[in-house]
Design brief:
The complex is a heterotrimer of chains A (588), B (243) and C (381).
Chain A lengths: L2 E2 L3 E6 L3 H12 L4 E5 L6 H4 L8 H6 L12 E4 L7 E2 L28 H4 L1 H9 L16 H15 L7 E2 L2 E2 L23 H12 L5 E2 L9 E2 L5 E2 L21 H4 L1 H4 L5 E5 L2 E7 L6 E7 L5 E11 L3 H11 L16 E4 L2 E8 L17 E3 L18 E5 L21 H11 L2 E8 L8 E9 L5 E6 L4 H21 L3 E4 L17 E3 L23 E3 L14 H19 L10
Parallel strand pairs in A: 1-14, 2-3, 2-14, 3-11, 4-21, 14-24
Antiparallel strand pairs in A: 4-5, 6-7, 8-17, 9-10, 12-13, 13-14, 15-23, 16-19, 16-22, 17-18, 18-19, 20-21
Helix pairs in contact in A: 1-13, 6-13
Chain B lengths: L1 H7 L2 E2 L16 E3 L26 H14 L14 H10 L1 H4 L24 H20 L8 H11 L14 H17 L11 H6 L32
Chain C lengths: L1 H29 L1 H5 L8 E4 L2 E4 L16 H10 L1 E2 L3 E2 L6 H4 L4 H13 L10 E3 L9 H8 L10 H7 L5 H4 L16 E3 L2 E3 L15 H10 L10 H8 L6 H12 L16 H13 L1 H4 L24 H9 L1 E2 L11 E2 L8 H12 L11 H9 L2
Antiparallel strand pairs in C: 1-2, 2-5, 3-4, 6-7, 8-9
The chains are: A alpha/beta (588), B mainly alpha (243), C mainly alpha (381).
């Protein structure tokens, strides 16, 4: 029998980026807030020690900061013809864990999805006709870029993003991204100093008439004080960024940006190492009354709240909704239901170039977002009329590290071990560079999330089942990207260059990307979305579901900037509209 | 009571404890009021004892040493895998949490999966090594009438190439393939070669020296602008070995 | 009778409220929470050269706290060091400083204490070593060293510093019997920390700090020179950050008026072996935050030109390198950034070398640090 606890105004599940932003905003507005986080407390001086954080084996390979499958795993299959089996070790994507979540160990690329993303269906239909996108389950997001612009700004200033604006209120700025949607003001910090590899990339890209610009970076180019009064340091290019926590306060994270202020709020409490098992609804299923969680000693508690905000990472948000019966499970056959619908991923390929000893790249002088990007082939920035697909990719020369267990490029045809391998590693390590395309992932009816019928977690709850393969549209898009990358690779004049080509049959083993999106999509129509434009559940109005689960599709960009903006957007809706008048903010 | 415990742990004038309300109480860790902090906080890694075997039998250890010496032979670029401590590294890893697979999802049922679904067997990494080494020696004895360690280097290379997609199928168990065994061996050997020396391998930072990886340095601001100029300083390890 | 009492209470309430606000502010000035804990229920262990004292429970609990005390009892304890029953207090309870407080302020503080939530917490206070655990000996100590008739006359700032804020309890050097010795506020070792020199000395004192910078430090816990950490972080968070701007200005005016009286006896040349050995240690472990130029940044304090690193003795420096530390976090400066613990990685010699380097580089000059000091600080953990 779960022990009943005193009621709170708001119960927040998970204390990563979205949980921290929402908790801080709600506590500042005077609500009594408790956040329940499955993983442990973590903070910079106590846990991200500058003397031992640089341990590739521990953090990069054994993945100590990540979610361990023993705690929560998922099953996967490419399509309904296969039987989903558990990912007994995570590979293709690595969910986060603990206070700060993946915000602790992300790379820091911080983007704004475009105006054309938020109204993607309308936009593409207008430009190319409905037939062009038939077969894709693309849909408008229910909120526009214009509505969200100030929320992007809030996240960028909270995090100290270092970059150069490309479009200031409609005027294209030299040195920035000419394809971005208009912003009201520049980034809070200037771009990082570049290392050799992205400098060379930008030079070569310009030779082709393309428009490279500094990747907007959450590794700060200079020390900074954010609007909450919290101070951050300057990135030192240590090359231990993704998979690692930052030891000198120079990577934006909940720890470095929000928690110092949040933890001092007297009306906020964190319960760490407590796992929420379900959100409990009233008998009519129309309101959440509490959450049940289990602590590290195995004791169960029931925490009542006037509202519940799911901030547990997109995939876990969807799973909790399904376990708690918030909304209806999506059925890919009938198309009915919305929870689990429009699951998307990321569609990527890479180029690798090898030089003689004349070019020395020092790959270990790096940061997670240190590099250059070009968006000439992203989204709908280019004319798709004569092409057999929609969508596109950002081209990124962001070489984040030279850590040798994972990074030791050898020229194609080299053996993987033995004397010749060793020579190939020596030849390749300092004299190889690369770049990649990170492409959009568009929804199709048959890619979705639900609960696995066979496998369960340590508490006996069914695991999430991921049914996903790259749609033909996305494969075609990715091959087109590979074509462009081959053009760029040629201009480098490398000794040898290879460009990968994506194949069907998503493989859950090698790491690709932890950009899992969708499953609790935001929208204007409750028949095709699980939450409304404010990320409020259509079915249970005192539940908000915040994260990339809200994405109706994934763009050719990292999701965190848009996730952060949506967190501020939902927080505003809660503090300025919902608490004044609880109930559905949008008529169903 | 909890309050007194928390307060009495603060040694005023001898500490800088924050004022967290870290109730070690029954409802999990409740934190509010400030960022938790305590002196000497953290979990630094513990260097392995370089002597002896914690997991491998003497015969297994000899086999592993022979394997790593072929995967990473000694030459002018670096000492061989054995001299670099790769076998010691693997032994210590298998004796610990990695070997026991404590972080993996190990709930049944175990079903044969597609290659896109990853390892679906019920053996821990330690179990996979043990079974694989035994099967490897069975194969060597069946093919050459000798243990793997007694083969000539060229023969050992042939066997390893055979495991590496070259057509040798060891007698393992359903759900555990020869390819999976070889990939595990190769991966762990490379980890041993390139990881920080505190874990038993990469002795003297030999691999880092070989490729020019400066190790655990954390501040490259003095070199970021020096494009196409090799970084001049040698490697450093976590425990401060400097090269 | 009860109705009369009730009416009396009703009319007294506003006066009481005003008194408890005033009393609460006295508790801020005196930093009661710093030793007696946030709830004032005591139990905090104070490490003295003479053994350990554990602070008593001063909540108004009748059995384990001050519930049975009168205002006169409280005044006597605060200003003469004598608790009810004639128990002599040790000057770890800074009654020599509180003796400067006017009775009205002490009474207001007592009124505030009455309103604090009573907590049941029986504390065994006296864990000093023999013979220091014999309270009667305090009679002699008081005779020699307790002279409350030498008032803290003059400015508000002097009153605050020598009175309720009792800065000298930490910052004034002590003789062998734990009593203040001259020069006042020139720095002192205290239970494993070194409270720095607050006089106008150019090397070890606050000469390079502006008055505004000192006010900022006391109010927020940081300025461009330094971040309060360790016991000072607690003093800022519990006390100075909550003082009025007027009082902070007064304190800063007084402190900035102190003539130079510290100094560290000089440093060692750049070619010194320890300095040279410290170069690499600094580059590998310190520069990523404090900078190759020692200048720090908006988040990390500078080491170059920082009087904090040039104190006569390096206990604090050794401690923060070995154990790490966390900076003060206040409304005005909420970051609470910290240093990681590096004692697991750096041996005593390495710590001594890098500290000697820091203390003698970038124009700094201070005595070398011995490995033995580092060893002692490490052992005291």
């Amino acid at each position: 029998m779960a022990k009943l606890l005193p009621r709170r105004d708001a119960v927040i599940i998970g204390l990563g980026w979205t949980g921290s932003i929402i908790a801080q905003q709600l506590a500042q507005a005077g609500l009594n807030v408790v956040a329940i986080e499955r993983g442990p407390w973590r903070d910079t001086p106590t846990d991200f020690n500058i003397g031992y954080m640089q341990d590739e084996l521990r953090y990069g390979i054994r993945k100590e900061l990540f979610l361990q499958p023993a705690v929560e795993a998922m099953t996967m299959r490419n399509d309904a013809s296969q039987t989903a089996l558990p990912m007994r070790d995570y590979g293709s994507f690595l969910p986060g864990n603990g206070v700060g979540g993946a915000g602790v160990h992300w790379n820091g690329h911080t983007w704004r999805f475009w105006d054309s993303d938020f109204s993607i269906r309308s936009h593409l239909t207008r430009r190319y006709g409905a037939k062009k996108i038939a077969g894709l389950q693309l849909q408008d997001w229910g909120a526009t870029y214009a509505e969200l612009e100030h929320c992007f700004d809030r996240f960028e200033y909270l995090a100290g993003i270092s970059g150069k604006a490309g479009n200031l209120r409609g005027r294209i700025q030299p040195g920035g991204n000419p394809f971005e949607s208009p912003r009201a003001r520049d980034y809070p910090n200037p771009p990082m100093k570049m290392s050799y590899a992205p400098t060379l990339f930008a030079q070569k890209a310009r030779e082709l008439g393309w428009h490279p610009f500094p990747t907007p970076s959450a590794n700060l180019s200079r020390s900074y004080v954010n609007p909450l009064g919290v101070r951050m340091g300057q990135c030192t290019y240590c090359g231990f960024c993704e998979r690692f926590a930052c030891a000198n306060y120079s990577k934006a994270s909940p720890q470095t940006c929000v928690l110092p202020v949040l933890m001092r709020q007297p009306n906020f409490e964190l319960r760490s190492e407590c796992e929420v098992l379900t959100v409990n609804l009233t008998p009519d299923g129309k309101a959440a009354k509490s959450v049940t969680y289990i602590d590290a000693k195995g004791v169960e508690y029931e925490q009542p709240g006037d509202m519940v905000v799911l901030c547990a990472y997109g995939l876990m948000n969807v799973r909790l909704m399904l376990l708690s019966k918030i909304g209806r499970q999506y059925d890919p056959v009938s198309g009915k239901g919305t929870v689990g619908r429009n699951y998307c991923y990321q569609t990527s390929s890479a180029a690798r170039l090898f030089f003689d000893s004349g070019k020395t790249f020092n790959p270990f002088i790096a940061a997670g977002s240190l590099g250059q990007t070009l968006d000439d082939f992203n989204g709908d920035a280019f004319d798709h009329s004569a092409l057999g697909f929609v969508g596109g990719a950002g081209f990124n020369c962001v070489l984040t590290n030279g850590r040798p267990i994972g990074y030791r490029p050898t020229a194609p045809g080299s053996p993987r071990w033995g004397a010749k391998w060793k020579q190939a590693v020596v030849d390749g390590y300092q004299h190889s560079t690369g770049f990649s395309s990170q492409g959009s992932s568009y929804p199709v009816r048959q890619n979705y999330l639900d609960l696995d019928p066979t496998y369960s977690d340590r508490h006996g709850r069914p695991l999430l089942r991921v049914t996903f393969d790259f749609p033909d549209n996305d494969i075609a898009m990715s091959h087109h990207m590979s074509d462009q990358m081959e053009k760029l690779a040629k201009v480098y004049g490398a000794k040898v260059a290879t460009v990968s080509r994506l194949k069907k049959g998503w493989d859950s083993v090698p790491y690709q990307s932890t950009h899992n999106t969708g499953g609790a999509v935001m929208g204007a129509d409750p028949k095709t979305s699980a939450v409304n434009k404010y990320l409020q559940s259509w079915d249970v109005p005192n539940v908000f579901v915040v994260g990339a689960s809200a994405f109706a599709h994934n763009a050719g960009m990292n999701p965190t900037g848009t996730v952060g903006a949506l967190a501020f957007w939902a927080a505003e809706a809660i503090t300025t509209k919902y608490i004044k008048s609880p109930g559905a903010l949008v008529p169903a | 009571m909890a309050e007194q415990r928390a307060i009495s742990r603060r040694w005023l004038l001898a500490s800088a404890a924050a004022l967290p309300v870290l109730a070690g109480a029954a409802d999990g860790r409740s934190i509010s009021g400030n960022l938790p902090w305590s002196p000497y906080a953290g979990e630094p890694p513990r260097p392995v004892n370089p002597l002896g075997w914690y997991f491998f039998t003497a015969a297994e250890a000899a086999t592993v040493e022979a394997i790593v010496d072929r995967l990473i032979p000694a030459d002018h670029l670096s000492p061989g895998g054995k001299a670099c401590g790769c076998a010691v590294f693997i032994d210590r890893q298998l004796a610990g949490t990695f070997g026991r697979g404590v972080n993996l999802y190990t709930r049944p049922p175990f079903a044969a999966g597609l290659s896109t679904q990853g390892y679906q067997g019920d053996l821990t990494p330690a179990g996979r090594w043990r079974m694989g080494l035994a099967a490897l020696n069975d194969h060597a004895r069946a093919s050459y009438k000798k243990d793997f360690t007694a083969l000539a280097a060229a023969q050992q290379d042939m066997v390893l190439a055979g495991l590496d997609g070259g057509g040798i199928a060891l007698k393992l168990k359903p759900g555990y393939s020869t390819k999976e065994f070889f990939e595990l061996v190769l991966q762990n050997t490379m980890e041993g070669f390139f990881a920080d020396p505190l874990y038993g391998g990469n002795r003297g930072m030999a691999s880092w020296r070989m490729i020019g990886f400066p190790g655990t340095r954390y501040d490259y601001r003095d070199h970021i602008d020096r494009h196409n100029v090799p970084y001049p300083r040698g490697p450093v390890s976590l425990y401060g070995m400097e090269g | 009778m009860r109705r009369l009492a009730f009416l009396a209470l009703l009319f007294a309430a506003p006066a009481l409220a005003a008194n408890t606000d005033a009393g609460k502010y006295q508790a801020v000035l005196g930093d009661c929470a710093g030793c007696h804990g946030k709830t004032l229920a005591g139990g905090v262990a104070l490490q003295m050269p003479f053994g350990t004292l554990v602070t008593p429970n001063i909540t108004p609990d009748r059995d384990t706290g001050t519930g049975n005390w009168s205002a006169a009892d409280f005044r006597k304890a605060m200003k003469t060091g004598v608790a009810p029953g004639g128990k002599l207090l040790y000057p770890a309870m800074p009654y020599p400083a509180y003796a400067h407080m006017p009775d009205g302020d002490v009474d207001a503080l007592f009124a505030y204490l009455r309103t604090v939530r009573p907590v049941k917490n029986a504390v065994r206070v006296n864990r000093l070593r023999f013979p220091f655990n014999i309270r009667f000996l305090m009679r002699g100590w008081n005779l020699l060293f307790f002279h409350p008739e030498n008032g803290a006359g003059g400015s508000r700032g002097r009153y605050l510093v020598e009175g309720p804020a009792h800065c000298g309890t930490c910052h004034t050097p002590k003789n062998l019997l734990g009593a203040d010795k001259a020069p006042a506020l020139s720095g002192a070792v205290l239970a494993g920390w070194y409270a720095p020199d607050l006089t106008g000395d150019r090397v070890t004192g606050l000469a390079s700090w502006s008055k505004a910078g000192l006010v900022e430090y006391l109010k927020t816990g940081r300025n461009s020179h330094s971040i309060a950490s360790g016991p000072m972080a607690e003093a800022v968070e519990n006390s100075t950050a909550l003082m009025t701007d007027g009082d902070l200005d007064a304190i800063a005016t007084y402190i900035k008026g102190l003539p130079a009286a510290g100094g560290n006896g000089g440093g060692v040349p750049r070619g010194d072996m320890q300095v040279q050995a410290g170069v690499a240690v600094y580059r590998l472990n310190c520069s990523a935050c404090h900078g190759a130029d020692g200048k720090g940044s908006a988040i990390f304090p500078p080491l170059a030109g920082n009087p904090n690193v040039r104190q006569a003795s390096a206990e604090t420096l050794a401690r923060v390198v070995l154990a790490g530390t966390r900076g003060a976090a206040t409304k005005g400066a909420p970051t609470g950034q910290g240093m990681p613990s590096l004692g697991w990685k750096l041996d005593d010699a390495a710590v001594a070398n890098v500290l000697t380097y820091i203390r003698n580089n970038w124009g700094n000059s201070a005595p070398a640090v011995e490995a033995g000091l580092v060893e002692r600080v490490r052992a005291a953990k």
